[in-house]
Amino acid sequence: MRRWFRSLHAQLFLWAILPVTFAIIAVAFTGIIGHERTMRDFVAERDLDLVRLGARIVEDGLAHGTVRADGVGVDEWLSLMLREDVLDLVVVDAQGRVLAHPDTALVGTDLRADPGVAAALDQSEGTVIVPGEDEELVLVAFAPLETVDWIVMVSEPVEGLIGPILRFPSLAPVAAGAAGIISLLVLAFGWLTIVRPLQRLSRAADQVSWGDYSAISRPVGGVQEVRDLHQSLAQMVERIQGYQSGMQDYLGAVTLGQEAERARLAHELHDGPVQDLIALGQRAEMAQRLLDKGQTARARELLEESRRAEVATVESLRRLIGDLRPVYLEDLGVVPALKMLATQARGRTAASVGFDTAGELRRYDPQTELAAYRIAQQALNNAVTHSGAQNIDVFVVSEPDGLTLSVSDDGSGFAFPEKADVLTRNGHYGLVGMKERAARLGGTLEIRTARGEGTRVIAHLPSQPSST
Q1: Based on CB atoms within 10 Å of each CB, which residue in 43, 65, 220, 338 is the most buried?
Q2: Could you give the residue range(s) of every CATH 3.30.450.20 domain in the chain?
């Protein structure tokens, strides 16, 4: 139950229901107050009609002589003319002296100090609400006689005008206060369990954006949904840290790879074309000496050897240039370049390397073509070097909006990790590099593999690199 109460939907439910409940209570009390006012007006009109009737009856008594001018006989005459269940009437003269009263002991007394009598003497006819005994409100109705300066009055407690169920307006301040306190408590609880935790989480996120990853590990509290959000953000930050660490490893590996590649090229240039050129120069010098001696046959042999060495040197230089920048890619386009890449792979493996295409041959943005070439180069190198495959297939689909490249093999495969940083920790920098190349252009790269089931690399590259 406590867990449910601390949940976000329970908080929102309380925040939504309490104001509505408070509004309903306010509307109900307003209706009750209006009904009470209507009831008061109705009873006041009824009592005013009653005192008017009483005044007419007393006038009839005076006219028939049954009521004397000093007030004697008023009680008897009124009791004869009115029903027994009618409220008792009071008759006072112009000086406030009581001529008739339900309490006979008060007959003849001066009641000018009474608020009801004072109002009757002042207004002659009408209804007023005045304080009575024990500060209880009393409704007083009064009407004058036309022939003498007498006033007929009737009074009754205001609380008696309506039923007990309609007396709740007196509790309105208490109910409103209680509802207000409960609303404040709910708002305070919501502030402590929703607003403040979200503020802490926002500050932690700001600190994370400035590199303080430890900020997200501090507890923020709050409802379950906020804690779940905090946990998700903490996991996301952990993955970001892993990704950054992996990228640092990847960039370091790329830097080392570049230096290693430069060293390899320098070594191959020094041991290959440079030595071949030196040998060519020596052969040319020897051929010249032989010609000077008239040994033309031997000179021709040296020149033929030099020609063959020159052809080999050119091929070696083309191979090195192709490693730096594929000439076929710039001259013929991505599809012929990929076909040549597959042909070169056949010379490095005993596996069968197939190549197939679909769609119309077309040119793409140079960045797209280079990315496709490097991805295929890395995928083929992985298949030839690590998979132990019997069959390797390259398939290219050329479309107006981009191309799809697929390199698959039936080799050993591997367990692909769920997190990208695991690739760098395990030294799979080539896979990370392929993903980065595709992502940088706005494309995607998917690697489907499992142990014993081979590997398939699928790259989707747009015809034009994404602006992002």
Answers
A1: 338
A2: 2-174
3-state DSSP of 424-457: HHCCCHHHHHHHHHHHHCCCEEEEEECCCCCEEE
Q: In the chain, which residues fall in CATH 3.30.565.10? A: 333-468
- CATH 3.30.70.1110 matches 2-174: no
Over 60: is that where the pLDDT of 467 sits?
Answer: no
The predicted model scores a pTM of 0.47
Residue 231's pLDDT is: 82
Provide the percentage of residues in the chain whose pLDDT is more than 90: 5
**Across residues 263-272, what is the average pLDDT?**
71
Beta bridge partners of 392: 353, 409
Rounded CA separation 233/236 (Å): 5
> Around Cβ 77, how many Cβ atoms within 10 Å?
19
- What's the rounded Cα separation, in Å, for the pair 422 and 223? 34
Domain covering 333-468 assigned CATH 3.30.565.10 in the classification = yes
Tokens at residue 249, please? 């490893």
Whole-number pLDDT of residue 253: 60
Q: Phi, psi (5° rounding) for residue 154?
A: -145, 145
- Partners of 448 in beta bridges: 456
Q: Which of 262, 243, 257, 246 is nearest to 378 (CA)?
A: 257
Q: Which residues have a Cβ under 8 Å from the Cβ of 357 and sit 6 or more positions away? A: 335, 395, 396, 397, 398
Q: Are strands 137-144 and 150-157 parallel, antiparallel or unpaired?
A: antiparallel
